[in-house]
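Session log. Operator J.P. requested a structure for one protein chain; no other inputs attached. Running the standard single-chain path with token output.
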Amino acid sequence: MKKIKNVLILGGLIFGLYAFNVVQDEWVVPAKFNTMKNPTDAADEDNLDIGSELYAKHCKSCHGKEGLGDGPKAAEQKGDLGDFSSEEFQAQTDGALFYKTKMGRNDMPDFSKKITSDEDIWFIVNYMRTMGE
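Structure written below.
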């Protein structure tokens, strides 16, 4: 009887940890970021050039040159790196992309200290938008 109780407790613990990890996979963006408007000119070539340079420096190693999640460090990551050209990715608001890029989570680093200018993060968002074209 004690063995059955221990198995049930262990099973419940394992299930609980699994369920917690599944819930953690959803990336919830706070409402204020979902509705945030991009203050930069997304079509400006200079802004896109800056975004491209920042992407190459901070993002390409994991997300790949074309944002397909196939960068040289991608295999080291545990989560799905996404496909920036996909309809699902491109359907996100600029504010959601800003939040995810700036704040990070799990394997995605928090860039708020590395990229201190919000404008630069917006430039990266603008550049990521070109991957859906």
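Operator note: The chain has seven helices and no strands.
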